[in-house]
Amino acid sequence: MTLPALPLEGFRVIDFSRVLAGPLCSALLGDLGAEVIKIEPPGGDDYRAIGPFSGGESGLFSAMNRNKQSVVIDLKCDEGRELAQALCARADVVVENFRPGVAERLGIGYAQLAARNPALVYASVSGFGQTGPESHRPAYDIILQAMCGLMDATGSPDGAPTLVGDSVSDVVSGIFASWGVLAALLARERTGKGTHVDVAMFDATLSLTTALVARYATTGIAPQRVGNRHPSSAPFGAYRARDGYFVVAVLNNRLFERLAHAMGQPVLIDDARFANDAARCENEAALRVCIESWSGVHSIAEVNGLLSEAGIPVAPIQNISEALKSEQARERGILVEAPAGDGGIVRLPRQPVQFSAWPTTRTTRAPRLGEHTLAVLQQQLGIDTAHVAALRAAGVLGVDETAGLRNETSQETNNA
After folding, report:
1. 112, 170, 348, 357: least buried by Cβ within 10 Å?
2. Residue 415 has pLDDT above 80, yes or no
3. Domain boundaries, the chain
4. Is residue 387 annotated as part of the catalytic site, yes or no?
Protein backbone atom coordinates (compact mmCIF):
# COMPACT_ATOMS: atom_id res chain seq x y z
CA MET A 1 0.00 0.00 0.00
CA THR A 2 1.33 3.44 -0.93
CA LEU A 3 0.99 5.87 1.95
CA PRO A 4 -0.19 9.43 1.19
CA ALA A 5 2.53 12.06 0.96
CA LEU A 6 3.29 13.83 4.21
CA PRO A 7 2.17 17.48 4.37
CA LEU A 8 5.63 19.00 3.83
CA GLU A 9 6.97 16.58 1.23
CA GLY A 10 8.52 18.54 -1.62
CA PHE A 11 9.73 21.36 0.63
CA ARG A 12 13.47 21.74 1.14
CA VAL A 13 15.00 23.14 4.34
CA ILE A 14 18.61 24.26 4.73
CA ASP A 15 19.49 24.11 8.41
CA PHE A 16 22.50 26.08 9.66
CA SER A 17 21.45 25.82 13.30
CA ARG A 18 23.09 23.89 16.10
CA VAL A 19 22.49 22.61 19.63
CA LEU A 20 18.74 22.68 20.45
CA ALA A 21 16.18 25.37 19.52
CA GLY A 22 17.01 25.67 15.81
CA PRO A 23 17.61 21.95 15.25
CA LEU A 24 14.31 21.13 16.96
CA CYS A 25 12.52 23.53 14.60
CA SER A 26 13.93 21.81 11.51
CA ALA A 27 13.43 18.33 13.02
CA LEU A 28 9.73 19.09 13.43
CA LEU A 29 9.58 20.16 9.77
CA GLY A 30 11.38 16.95 8.80
CA ASP A 31 8.89 14.90 10.81
CA LEU A 32 6.21 16.18 8.44
CA GLY A 33 8.11 15.21 5.31
CA ALA A 34 10.34 18.18 4.50
CA GLU A 35 13.79 17.42 3.11
CA VAL A 36 16.20 18.85 5.70
CA ILE A 37 19.84 19.42 4.77
CA LYS A 38 21.91 20.25 7.84
CA ILE A 39 25.00 22.34 7.10
CA GLU A 40 27.71 21.68 9.69
CA PRO A 41 31.19 23.15 10.15
CA PRO A 42 34.12 20.74 9.83
CA GLY A 43 34.02 20.14 13.59
CA GLY A 44 30.31 19.40 13.56
CA ASP A 45 27.40 20.60 15.69
CA ASP A 46 28.51 21.01 19.33
CA TYR A 47 25.67 18.72 20.40
CA ARG A 48 27.47 15.76 18.82
CA ALA A 49 29.92 15.89 21.74
CA ILE A 50 27.32 16.11 24.52
CA GLY A 51 26.29 12.90 26.31
CA PRO A 52 24.70 10.58 27.04
CA PHE A 53 26.03 8.40 24.23
CA SER A 54 24.84 5.14 22.70
CA GLY A 55 26.85 3.39 20.04
CA GLY A 56 29.18 6.39 19.96
CA GLU A 57 26.32 8.75 19.07
CA SER A 58 24.94 11.53 21.26
CA GLY A 59 21.38 10.85 22.32
CA LEU A 60 20.62 14.57 22.45
CA PHE A 61 22.03 15.17 18.96
CA SER A 62 20.11 12.15 17.63
CA ALA A 63 16.80 13.41 19.01
CA MET A 64 17.17 16.97 17.68
CA ASN A 65 18.54 16.00 14.28
CA ARG A 66 16.33 13.13 13.20
CA ASN A 67 15.20 13.07 9.57
CA LYS A 68 18.16 15.14 8.32
CA GLN A 69 21.06 14.90 5.90
CA SER A 70 24.47 16.21 7.00
CA VAL A 71 26.65 18.27 4.69
CA VAL A 72 29.95 19.70 5.93
CA ILE A 73 30.81 23.15 4.57
CA ASP A 74 33.29 25.62 6.00
CA LEU A 75 31.47 28.95 5.82
CA LYS A 76 34.61 30.85 6.74
CA CYS A 77 36.03 30.45 3.24
CA ASP A 78 34.74 31.95 0.00
CA GLU A 79 34.14 28.62 -1.72
CA GLY A 80 32.13 27.40 1.27
CA ARG A 81 29.94 30.47 1.30
CA GLU A 82 29.31 30.14 -2.43
CA LEU A 83 28.20 26.51 -1.99
CA ALA A 84 25.89 27.43 0.88
CA GLN A 85 24.38 30.31 -1.06
CA ALA A 86 23.78 28.04 -4.06
CA LEU A 87 21.99 25.48 -1.89
CA CYS A 88 19.83 28.20 -0.32
CA ALA A 89 18.89 29.49 -3.77
CA ARG A 90 17.14 26.15 -4.35
CA ALA A 91 15.52 25.94 -0.90
CA ASP A 92 12.12 26.82 0.50
CA VAL A 93 13.26 27.42 4.08
CA VAL A 94 16.47 28.38 5.88
CA VAL A 95 16.86 27.98 9.65
CA GLU A 96 19.72 29.55 11.60
CA ASN A 97 20.38 30.37 15.25
CA PHE A 98 23.50 32.52 15.16
CA ARG A 99 23.68 35.71 17.16
CA PRO A 100 22.37 38.67 15.11
CA GLY A 101 24.96 39.79 12.56
CA VAL A 102 26.89 36.51 12.37
CA ALA A 103 24.85 35.05 9.49
CA GLU A 104 25.44 38.23 7.50
CA ARG A 105 29.19 38.00 8.09
CA LEU A 106 29.07 34.40 6.84
CA GLY A 107 27.24 35.46 3.69
CA ILE A 108 23.97 33.72 4.58
CA GLY A 109 21.91 36.55 6.07
CA TYR A 110 18.28 36.96 5.08
CA ALA A 111 18.77 39.97 2.81
CA GLN A 112 21.69 38.29 1.05
CA LEU A 113 19.80 35.07 0.37
CA ALA A 114 16.41 36.68 -0.37
CA ALA A 115 17.98 38.83 -3.08
CA ARG A 116 18.64 35.61 -4.97
CA ASN A 117 15.56 33.70 -3.76
CA PRO A 118 12.67 36.10 -2.96
CA ALA A 119 10.35 33.21 -2.07
CA LEU A 120 12.64 32.05 0.73
CA VAL A 121 11.22 31.66 4.24
CA TYR A 122 14.11 32.41 6.59
CA ALA A 123 13.83 31.62 10.30
CA SER A 124 16.25 33.14 12.81
CA VAL A 125 16.19 31.79 16.36
CA SER A 126 18.25 33.81 18.84
CA GLY A 127 18.30 34.63 22.51
CA PHE A 128 16.75 38.09 22.29
CA GLY A 129 15.74 38.53 18.67
CA GLN A 130 17.10 40.69 15.87
CA THR A 131 16.27 43.98 17.61
CA GLY A 132 16.39 45.47 21.09
CA PRO A 133 19.15 46.43 23.54
CA GLU A 134 19.85 42.80 24.50
CA SER A 135 19.91 41.40 20.96
CA HIS A 136 23.71 41.11 20.93
CA ARG A 137 23.81 38.84 23.97
CA PRO A 138 24.38 35.08 23.79
CA ALA A 139 21.73 33.05 25.54
CA TYR A 140 21.24 29.62 27.03
CA ASP A 141 18.09 28.10 28.45
CA ILE A 142 19.05 28.93 32.04
CA ILE A 143 19.63 32.58 31.10
CA LEU A 144 16.13 32.87 29.64
CA GLN A 145 14.46 31.02 32.51
CA ALA A 146 16.16 33.48 34.86
CA MET A 147 15.33 36.63 32.88
CA CYS A 148 11.72 35.80 31.99
CA GLY A 149 10.35 35.18 35.49
CA LEU A 150 10.07 31.42 35.10
CA MET A 151 12.66 30.56 37.76
CA ASP A 152 11.30 33.19 40.12
CA ALA A 153 7.82 31.65 39.85
CA THR A 154 9.07 28.08 40.38
CA GLY A 155 9.89 26.47 43.73
CA SER A 156 8.81 26.72 47.35
CA PRO A 157 7.69 30.08 48.75
CA ASP A 158 10.49 29.98 51.34
CA GLY A 159 13.07 28.47 48.99
CA ALA A 160 15.30 29.63 46.17
CA PRO A 161 14.09 30.31 42.63
CA THR A 162 14.17 26.95 40.83
CA LEU A 163 15.18 25.92 37.35
CA VAL A 164 12.45 24.03 35.49
CA GLY A 165 13.64 20.47 34.93
CA ASP A 166 14.19 20.62 31.17
CA SER A 167 15.38 23.13 28.56
CA VAL A 168 11.92 24.58 28.12
CA SER A 169 13.08 27.93 26.70
CA ASP A 170 14.98 26.16 23.94
CA VAL A 171 12.13 23.77 23.25
CA VAL A 172 9.34 26.33 23.11
CA SER A 173 11.50 28.55 20.87
CA GLY A 174 11.99 25.65 18.44
CA ILE A 175 8.26 24.95 18.44
CA PHE A 176 7.36 28.62 17.83
CA ALA A 177 9.96 28.77 15.05
CA SER A 178 8.41 25.79 13.26
CA TRP A 179 4.98 27.37 13.74
CA GLY A 180 6.26 30.61 12.22
CA VAL A 181 7.78 28.78 9.26
CA LEU A 182 4.50 27.00 8.55
CA ALA A 183 2.57 30.27 8.72
CA ALA A 184 5.06 31.91 6.35
CA LEU A 185 4.85 29.02 3.89
CA LEU A 186 1.05 29.24 3.93
CA ALA A 187 1.21 32.98 3.23
CA ARG A 188 3.73 32.34 0.44
CA GLU A 189 1.16 30.15 -1.30
CA ARG A 190 -1.00 33.27 -1.63
CA THR A 191 1.62 35.95 -2.27
CA GLY A 192 4.58 34.09 -3.75
CA LYS A 193 6.86 35.99 -1.37
CA GLY A 194 8.99 34.72 1.47
CA THR A 195 9.70 36.48 4.75
CA HIS A 196 12.08 36.68 7.67
CA VAL A 197 10.74 34.85 10.77
CA ASP A 198 12.40 36.40 13.84
CA VAL A 199 12.07 34.17 16.93
CA ALA A 200 13.53 35.38 20.22
CA MET A 201 13.88 32.88 23.05
CA PHE A 202 13.06 35.78 25.38
CA ASP A 203 9.72 36.38 23.65
CA ALA A 204 8.94 32.69 23.35
CA THR A 205 9.63 32.00 27.03
CA LEU A 206 7.41 34.87 28.13
CA SER A 207 4.72 33.53 25.79
CA LEU A 208 5.14 30.10 27.39
CA THR A 209 4.32 31.60 30.80
CA THR A 210 0.88 32.66 29.62
CA ALA A 211 -0.82 32.45 33.00
CA LEU A 212 1.96 34.39 34.77
CA VAL A 213 1.81 37.12 32.14
CA ALA A 214 -2.00 37.26 32.32
CA ARG A 215 -1.95 37.58 36.11
CA TYR A 216 0.58 40.38 35.97
CA ALA A 217 -1.26 42.16 33.13
CA THR A 218 -4.45 42.07 35.21
CA THR A 219 -3.05 43.00 38.63
CA GLY A 220 0.23 44.75 37.98
CA ILE A 221 1.81 42.46 40.60
CA ALA A 222 4.41 39.80 39.83
CA PRO A 223 3.10 36.36 40.89
CA GLN A 224 4.94 34.78 43.82
CA ARG A 225 6.19 31.21 44.20
CA VAL A 226 3.61 28.90 45.74
CA GLY A 227 5.41 25.55 45.46
CA ASN A 228 3.55 22.46 44.31
CA ARG A 229 0.08 24.00 44.36
CA HIS A 230 -2.04 26.21 42.16
CA PRO A 231 -1.76 29.93 42.98
CA SER A 232 -5.50 30.59 42.93
CA SER A 233 -7.32 27.26 43.43
CA ALA A 234 -7.39 24.56 46.12
CA PRO A 235 -7.02 21.70 46.56
CA PHE A 236 -4.99 21.81 43.37
CA GLY A 237 -1.46 20.52 43.82
CA ALA A 238 0.75 17.79 45.26
CA TYR A 239 -0.12 15.98 48.48
CA ARG A 240 1.56 13.27 50.52
CA ALA A 241 0.37 9.67 50.60
CA ARG A 242 1.80 6.85 52.70
CA ASP A 243 4.45 5.94 50.10
CA GLY A 244 5.03 9.18 48.21
CA TYR A 245 3.18 12.00 46.50
CA PHE A 246 0.18 12.37 44.22
CA VAL A 247 -1.54 15.36 42.63
CA VAL A 248 -5.19 16.30 42.68
CA ALA A 249 -7.05 19.04 40.79
CA VAL A 250 -10.30 20.35 42.31
CA LEU A 251 -11.55 23.49 40.60
CA ASN A 252 -15.18 23.77 41.71
CA ASN A 253 -17.57 23.01 44.57
CA ARG A 254 -19.01 19.91 42.90
CA LEU A 255 -15.60 18.26 42.76
CA PHE A 256 -14.82 19.36 46.32
CA GLU A 257 -17.98 17.66 47.56
CA ARG A 258 -16.95 14.47 45.79
CA LEU A 259 -13.50 14.71 47.37
CA ALA A 260 -14.93 15.20 50.84
CA HIS A 261 -17.15 12.15 50.47
CA ALA A 262 -14.34 10.03 48.98
CA MET A 263 -12.16 10.87 51.99
CA GLY A 264 -14.97 10.06 54.40
CA GLN A 265 -15.01 13.67 55.61
CA PRO A 266 -18.37 15.09 54.42
CA VAL A 267 -18.22 17.62 57.26
CA LEU A 268 -15.75 19.62 55.15
CA ILE A 269 -18.53 20.54 52.73
CA ASP A 270 -20.22 22.78 55.32
CA ASP A 271 -16.98 24.19 56.74
CA ALA A 272 -16.99 27.94 56.05
CA ARG A 273 -13.23 27.88 55.46
CA PHE A 274 -13.82 25.68 52.42
CA ALA A 275 -17.11 27.14 51.15
CA ASN A 276 -15.77 28.11 47.72
CA ASP A 277 -12.59 28.11 45.68
CA ALA A 278 -11.37 31.47 46.97
CA ALA A 279 -11.91 30.42 50.59
CA ARG A 280 -10.23 27.07 50.05
CA CYS A 281 -7.25 28.78 48.47
CA GLU A 282 -6.96 31.21 51.40
CA ASN A 283 -7.14 28.30 53.85
CA GLU A 284 -5.06 25.87 51.80
CA ALA A 285 -2.76 24.99 54.72
CA ALA A 286 -5.67 23.85 56.89
CA LEU A 287 -7.21 21.98 53.98
CA ARG A 288 -3.89 20.25 53.31
CA VAL A 289 -3.89 18.92 56.89
CA CYS A 290 -7.36 17.46 56.35
CA ILE A 291 -6.40 15.82 53.06
CA GLU A 292 -3.08 14.40 54.23
CA SER A 293 -4.60 13.04 57.45
CA TRP A 294 -6.60 10.80 55.10
CA SER A 295 -4.10 10.21 52.27
CA GLY A 296 -1.20 9.63 54.65
CA VAL A 297 -2.59 6.24 55.67
CA HIS A 298 -3.21 5.14 52.07
CA SER A 299 -0.79 4.20 49.31
CA ILE A 300 -0.56 6.26 46.15
CA ALA A 301 -2.26 3.45 44.26
CA GLU A 302 -5.13 3.37 46.76
CA VAL A 303 -5.57 7.14 46.65
CA ASN A 304 -5.47 7.14 42.86
CA GLY A 305 -8.06 4.35 42.68
CA LEU A 306 -10.47 5.86 45.21
CA LEU A 307 -10.39 9.38 43.80
CA SER A 308 -10.51 8.24 40.17
CA GLU A 309 -13.59 6.17 40.97
CA ALA A 310 -15.16 9.33 42.43
CA GLY A 311 -14.49 11.22 39.19
CA ILE A 312 -11.84 13.49 40.69
CA PRO A 313 -8.77 14.44 38.55
CA VAL A 314 -5.87 12.67 40.28
CA ALA A 315 -2.52 11.17 39.27
CA PRO A 316 0.62 9.66 40.75
CA ILE A 317 3.82 11.66 40.30
CA GLN A 318 5.83 9.61 37.81
CA ASN A 319 9.42 9.88 36.69
CA ILE A 320 10.22 10.04 32.97
CA SER A 321 10.90 6.30 32.79
CA GLU A 322 7.50 5.49 34.26
CA ALA A 323 5.81 7.97 31.92
CA LEU A 324 7.45 6.56 28.78
CA LYS A 325 6.86 2.94 29.81
CA SER A 326 3.17 3.57 30.46
CA GLU A 327 0.53 1.96 28.31
CA GLN A 328 -0.67 5.44 27.32
CA ALA A 329 2.77 6.40 25.98
CA ARG A 330 3.08 3.10 24.11
CA GLU A 331 -0.38 3.48 22.58
CA ARG A 332 0.38 7.04 21.46
CA GLY A 333 3.81 6.09 20.08
CA ILE A 334 5.79 8.75 21.94
CA LEU A 335 9.09 6.90 21.41
CA VAL A 336 9.73 5.05 18.17
CA GLU A 337 12.52 2.70 17.14
CA ALA A 338 14.52 3.40 14.01
CA PRO A 339 17.56 1.72 12.39
CA ALA A 340 20.78 3.20 13.76
CA GLY A 341 23.87 3.97 11.70
CA ASP A 342 25.73 0.98 13.16
CA GLY A 343 22.99 -1.46 12.23
CA GLY A 344 21.41 -1.46 15.67
CA ILE A 345 18.30 0.30 16.88
CA VAL A 346 17.94 3.86 18.16
CA ARG A 347 14.94 5.13 20.10
CA LEU A 348 13.79 8.60 19.06
CA PRO A 349 10.97 10.92 20.12
CA ARG A 350 8.16 11.23 17.60
CA GLN A 351 6.51 14.57 16.99
CA PRO A 352 3.31 14.57 19.09
CA VAL A 353 0.61 15.64 16.63
CA GLN A 354 -1.45 12.90 14.98
CA PHE A 355 -3.30 13.39 11.69
CA SER A 356 -6.20 11.36 10.36
CA ALA A 357 -4.90 11.83 6.80
CA TRP A 358 -1.46 10.36 7.55
CA PRO A 359 -1.19 7.08 9.48
CA THR A 360 2.29 8.00 10.62
CA THR A 361 4.84 10.77 10.29
CA ARG A 362 8.57 10.32 9.63
CA THR A 363 11.19 9.45 12.25
CA THR A 364 14.61 8.41 10.95
CA ARG A 365 18.05 8.48 12.59
CA ALA A 366 20.27 11.53 12.75
CA PRO A 367 23.08 11.63 10.17
CA ARG A 368 26.77 11.05 10.71
CA LEU A 369 28.85 14.18 10.31
CA GLY A 370 29.15 14.94 6.59
CA GLU A 371 27.41 11.71 5.62
CA HIS A 372 25.52 13.30 2.71
CA THR A 373 28.03 15.91 1.52
CA LEU A 374 28.89 14.18 -1.74
CA ALA A 375 25.32 13.16 -2.59
CA VAL A 376 23.79 16.58 -1.88
CA LEU A 377 26.40 18.54 -3.80
CA GLN A 378 26.06 16.21 -6.77
CA GLN A 379 22.27 16.06 -6.78
CA GLN A 380 21.48 19.67 -5.85
CA LEU A 381 24.31 21.56 -7.52
CA GLY A 382 25.53 19.14 -10.20
CA ILE A 383 29.08 19.14 -8.84
CA ASP A 384 31.06 16.13 -10.04
CA THR A 385 33.16 13.82 -7.90
CA ALA A 386 36.46 15.36 -8.98
CA HIS A 387 35.28 18.85 -8.02
CA VAL A 388 34.08 17.56 -4.64
CA ALA A 389 37.48 15.94 -4.10
CA ALA A 390 39.21 19.22 -4.93
CA LEU A 391 36.97 21.13 -2.52
CA ARG A 392 37.70 18.58 0.16
CA ALA A 393 41.42 18.79 -0.46
CA ALA A 394 41.18 22.56 -0.05
CA GLY A 395 39.49 22.10 3.34
CA VAL A 396 36.14 23.49 2.22
CA LEU A 397 34.24 20.29 3.05
CA GLY A 398 36.24 19.02 5.99
CA VAL A 399 37.38 15.40 6.28
CA ASP A 400 35.39 12.74 4.42
CA GLU A 401 33.66 11.20 7.44
CA THR A 402 31.99 8.53 5.29
CA ALA A 403 35.15 7.23 3.61
CA GLY A 404 35.85 4.63 6.28
CA LEU A 405 32.25 3.49 6.22
CA ARG A 406 32.32 3.12 2.43
CA ASN A 407 35.60 1.23 2.58
CA GLU A 408 34.22 -1.14 5.23
CA THR A 409 31.11 -1.74 3.13
CA SER A 410 33.18 -2.34 0.03
CA GLN A 411 35.44 -4.77 1.87
CA GLU A 412 32.42 -6.67 3.21
CA THR A 413 31.01 -6.89 -0.33
CA ASN A 414 34.32 -8.16 -1.72
CA ASN A 415 34.53 -10.80 1.00
CA ALA A 416 30.96 -12.00 0.46
Report:
1. 357
2. no
3. 12-209+330-406, 236-321
4. no
